[in-house]
Amino acid sequence: MEFKNVNVVKKANVYFDGKVTSRTVLFENGEKKTLGFMLTGEYEFNTGAEELMEVLNGEMDICVAGASDYTLYKEGQSFVVPANSSFKIIIKTFADYCCSYKENG
Fold it and tell me: What are the record keywords, sorted (predicted)?
């Protein structure tokens, strides 16, 4: 899949000493996504807006705030994290992902 008629922010979003990186993609209709890559490790992220995370390659174990267990997501699967929440991720090899942000309001 590809995106057409977009703008890309050149500077990378870098987290956890470079183990998680992404690029921001901006659409003409105001939609925002990030395309990223995660190396092996355990991470925790907070959300502002609701996020749809799509696993493009690799896999990730996810525990959304309020859940007691991790769920494994593989290539082609996705999950939603509510706005103003958090989620924990365990990456055992690597993960390539696309994150779509839902506008608040």
Answer: Glycosyltransferase, Transferase
Kind and range of the H or E element at 86? strand 86-101
Entry pTM: 0.91
Is the model's pLDDT at 71 over the cut of 60? Answer: yes
* Residue 1 maps to a domain: no
Tens-place pLDDT, residues 22-36: 999 999 999 999 999
How distant is the alpha carbon of residue 100 from its chain centre? 8
Token duo for residue 55: 């696993």
| Residue 105, both tokens | 């309001």
Residue type, 17: D
Q: Are strands 86-101 and 32-46 parallel, antiparallel or unpaired?
A: antiparallel
Band (104; pLDDT cuts 50, 70, 90):
low
Total domains, the chain? 1
* 23 vs 104: CA distance, rounded Å: 21
* Tokens matching residue 54: 């799509």
55, 50, 86: which is closest to 72 by C-alpha? 55
